[in-house]
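Question: I have long wanted to understand how a fold can be written as tokens. Here is the record:
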Amino acid sequence: MSKMRPSGGYRTTCSFQTATIIYDATYWFCEKFLDARSRTVDQMVQAARSGRQNIAEGSRAAATSSQTELRLLNVARSSLEELLLDYEDFLRHRRLARWTPDSSEALAVRQVPREFRNDSSDLTDLTDQERWALYARWLEHADPAVRANATICLIHQANYLLDQQIAALEKMFIEDGGYSEQLAAARLAERQKKKDQPDPSNPSDRIQACPQCGKPMVLRTAKTGRNTGQQFWGCTAYPDCKGVVKV
């Protein structure tokens, strides 16, 4: 039996793949440019990791809970927003230049996925190492300002993708309901299907009309007399109508 709601598959999503690059970039950025004993290192690495891991966890939770999936994607979004502020703080505290959104450097980073689409190639089919290589000229740069600015660009991209995912899930939840509602609807549909296609071997699926008054009959079990324990059809209008049919 196939799943009612798809789940998993997060590894091929652009949001997860971008979050993976951000996590790796942050890990190596902190390793190279920050004091390993600094609390900021732990906070940045954990925020980057949370962004990635919660996308994966939310995808797996999709099978049984729309609300859990939405909550975890929002956690991922919040974690990346926290990480964004850390990178901005790094640049500001060291009086390093921040790329403007329309700067040639920022445009070059944003152009990477567009170039793949223009070449009729799919960025999601690449390995993690191949995707990293596309951004390596910025993310492995000797200048920490270049690395920080490039990672900021990627965080903005990931946040945009997550915003789109969250909006789509909210719309689907409003239109189709959550998992419990869909499960109940499927159960009712299955019951109706069985009702429309009665099972001849099941006496309850052979409901007939009372031969005396024409009203529906109900399956009953004799409690007294020589037929005790045996089933029979009795009129639903009993005691006004005492119509009986043997099973």
In short: The radius of gyration is 31 Å. Residues 96 and 145 are 6 Å apart (CA to CA).
